[in-house]
């Protein structure tokens, strides 16, 4: 009996660390975050309505945006914020399509709103910086040209700024467009987009919402962010040496200027849902590469033991290296004579914990969507997606891990290789390696034949 207990204890001691890693890194923080967000919701005072509407500047980077530019401008024009208080800069980065014609037509048909076109041929960051220097608004709002604002997004954002003077920068809430998801054809395609919607909701209304309580938001959203002009002009502006200029600005404001960054949960910007796994692969790689580039630009300060790159790889929302540990530990368990049934039970236990985390996120997000009935209903009726999130996060993890690997051996570039292109490169490398091996085998054979002839 004693021997059995010793064997059982040894097995448990080997198994527990594998379970403890995800438990400590993901599950327990989710439970802790749930109570923090509940407390924040209860404690949060309602923002006072605006007594006057300050002048604002909206900067929209444009690059071959003819297909989406008009709908983006419409979302600004038909918003609840007065048009006469809005200045729009279209910062063109070498467009070759009909974007300028769209601008001209819109300017002629909407004379009551101030729209300007700026040309820059040295990249997106330079285009944004040019618009910043020419802006006149009290608040600078940056939105992408391939999305649309929810009707009250601008007003809610400015209201939060006016009510809380210690907030210097804000990120809006980015969600994939529910109407486009509803109109999507194909069951599996639509299901993938619903899962992505849940991922965005978790990332902003749970993840960044939690981070804002501790002024630790890792990155302002490049698709929708806002600044006090007096703050953004004190930074080094948008950096031209990274594909993740929004993350770079975030760290300048929080780390260098030591100012507060917040999330406005009622300022929503809708982006197009992904159209394929190939698009998702390219997108997540680019995000990961950009974050690592910025991490290299902000090394640990003197007197601080933490490394931003170390914390990024360990504690960003992909949990890159902790996940690598327990994914590969799973393989190791099979070589340590653990019964297959035991491993399956362990996986089911972890899956249950992930579902529990997802359900807590679900409750938090529902509570933060009470201000918009349509969004709340769309989200609440897709609760079954919670059961698919662990699998989706598993796939996204490997995509972003590929971004980490590619960032090591590749230069900064918006052009990221697709999955098909990388498969071709791998096949070419394998073919070349096999050719080298064959060549060496032939050389060895010739050497042996010559030796035998002698």
Automatic annotation (TrEMBL):
Transmembrane segments: 15-38, 312-336, 342-363, 383-399
All copies of domain Glycosyltransferase 2-like, residue ranges: 57-230
Keywords from the named record: Glycosyltransferase, Membrane, Transferase, Transmembrane, Transmembrane helix
CDD domains, per database record: CESA_like (cd06423)
Keyword match Glycosyltransferase: yes
A Pfam family: Glycos_transf_2
GO MF terms held by the record: glycosyltransferase activity
Keyword match Transferase: yes
Superkingdom in the source lineage: Bacteria
Protein family according to the UniProt entry: Belongs to the glycosyltransferase 2 family.
PANTHER family for this protein: POLY-BETA-1,6-N-ACETYL-D-GLUCOSAMINE SYNTHASE
Listed name of the protein: Putative glycosyltransferase, exosortase G-associated
Provenance organism: Anaerocolumna xylanovorans DSM 12503
